[in-house]
Amino acid sequence: MAKEKKIATPWNVSRRATAKVKNPLPAPTKCNCCASEAIEIVENSKVYNGRSYGKYPWIYLCGDCGAYVGLHPFTNIPLGTLANEEMRKARKDSKFYFTPLYASGDMDRNEAYERLAKKLGISKSECHFAWFDVEMCAKAADACIQIANEVSKRPKVEESKPKGIMAQAFQKLGLA
Question: How far apart are CA 38 and CA 115, in angstroms?
C-alpha cells in the first residue's frame, strides 16, 4: 500500500520548508497595528473578495482591524509583521525606490540590501520591507534616494531603459 502524502497547511507544515526560512519571525499573537489579540490563520480569500491567490493561500489576519500578513510557503512562519492598509501602502511606496537600485545593474540585490541596512543603522538580517513600520518605510525611501545619488554608474544604453512603473522609479531616482 502506497504511503499517503500529507498536504502542507499551517497546521501541518513542511519541515524542509520551515528549515529554509532565514530569520523567521514568531507567529503574531498580538496585532502590531491595533494591539488586538484576535489573530487567526485564514485563507487569503478573506481579504481578496472571496478569491484565493497563490499555491499557499494562507495569512495571519487580525479580526479587529483587518491587518494581515502572508506566510512563507508550506510553513506557519509569517513573511513579515501584520500590516493595515496604511502600512501596506508605505511598504509598497518605499520598495518603489529600492527596486531600481539593483534593477539598474549598478549593484546586485544583496548589495542594495546591505547598503540600505547600513543607511538605516540596522543589520542586514533585519532589513526586510515586510518588517518595517510606516516610519521605517519613510526612512528607507529616503535612504534609497541617497544611495541612488551616491552610485557613480548610471544606465546609458537606450535599449536598457525599463518600461512602465520601473521607468517611473528610475526617473524619480535620476537613473533614467
Answer: 37
Query: Are the C-beta atoms of 81 and 128 separated by less than 8 Å?
Result: no
Q: What share of the chain is helix, strand, coil (3-state, %, to 5)?
A: 40, 10, 50
Tens digits of residue pLDDT in 26-83: 999 999 999 999 999 999 999 999 999 988 999 999 999 999 999 999 999 999 999 9
Distance CA 55, CA 164 (A): 27
Euclidean distance between CA atoms 1 and 3, whole angstroms = 7
Please choose, from the candidates 49, 50, 78, the residue with its C-alpha nearest in 3D space to the C-alpha of residue 62. Answer: 78
Amino acid type, 27: A
> Each residue of 107-163: pLDDT tens digit?
999 999 999 999 999 999 999 999 999 999 999 999 999 999 888 555 444 444 455
CB 68 within 8 A of CB 82: yes
